[in-house]
Write a structure and sequence with these properties.
four-stranded mixed sheet; mainly beta; single chain; six-stranded antiparallel sheet
Amino acid sequence: MKRKNTKIGDLFAVKLDSGCKKYFQLVGFDLTQLNSDVIRVFKTEYSANTVPVLTEVINNEVDFYAHCITVFGIKLGFWEKVGNMPDVGNIDVLFRSSSDSPKTKISNNWWIWKVNEPQQYVGKLEGENKFSEIGSVIPPDSIVYRIKTGRYDFVYPEFE
């Protein structure tokens, strides 16, 4: 069996419980976070039998960014690759990670970074840092859960 690889620009479809689907795109690899895949998930929902024009998909509003391993999601059946569009937009996105245990209710020990830039310790999250995305490498099932519900299905420290 040939190994499936993913590359920057790849687009993926996730089937929703409603019979619809949403899309996301692999937009980069973040050396700061284990060289993991960085994806951007789009807000627009399509009916299951619609085959949208991929240029339309990548011009939709972005719902969120995350780190994951896209090839695992394919192997586990959480999404399927549907094409590739080299336009990955602006990935000037801020990520955060806490140095506290996930069981910590409120953390004041935060690190922030942008893709392929060094992490910076900021302590308490303030200002624009409050809008940063969780920077951990997220399992495929948790990516799908957030696509479906708008939140993750795991415990992670909050900041206020």
